[in-house]
Amino acid sequence: MTGGPLSQSIVDKPKKPKCGFGVTYLAQDNSSDTLVSVKCIDKSRVLEDNWEPLPDSLHLERIDNDAAPAGRLPREIALLLRLDHPNIPHVIAVYHNATFFQMVVPSHEPAFDLFRFIDENPAVEEPIASHIFRQFRQLLQ
User: Fold this and answer.
1) Phi first, then psi: what are they for 3, rounded to 5°?
2) What are the two backbone dihedrals, phi and then psi, of residue 87, each rounded to the nearest 5 degrees?
3) Looking at the whole model, is its pTM more than 0.85?
4) Is the bond leading into 110 cis (omega within 30 degrees of zero)?
């Protein structure tokens, strides 16, 4: 799944089992000696209506010589690149090869993935749901 600048930085097994569009790894950022999360998103699992055009301001680094330039991004990456909120990790870098996008974000341990949380807790109590929606409201203001 990784190569190039990421090939020597993976320091742990996946943080969670493969699900959804890919898998997330804990890695060491060799330039700053900090832990980061690397989400590997399988391009073949992204639904056709979940793609956005590649912003002109973003340079994607290919991590293999066979990958054609990507003209679009999964919506998850595109949204995270635009959002600026203290409870949402900022994107440090995005790489790609023929099969995967690799999105690098700061590792916030302990943390949880909202999709996974909802999937594992389909009936959350009202105070928790209220807290989540307050964060969404703050994000959209």
Assistant:
1) 180, 180
2) -95, 5
3) no
4) yes
Nearest to 46 by CA among 92, 91, 86, 96: 96
pLDDT along the chain (141 residues), means of 10: 52 53 78 83 89 79 61 87 82 86 81 71 85 79 69
Range of the domain at 43: 4-110
CATH number of the CATH domain containing 76: 3.30.200.20
Q: Contact 27/17 with Cβ under 8 angstroms? A: no
Q: How many helices (H) and strands (E) does the chain have?
A: 3, 8
Say which DSSP state 50 is in.
G
Query: What letter represents residue 8's amino acid?
Result: Q
Helices (H), 51-140: 75-82, 114-120, 126-140
* Strand pairing class (10-14; 72-74): unpaired
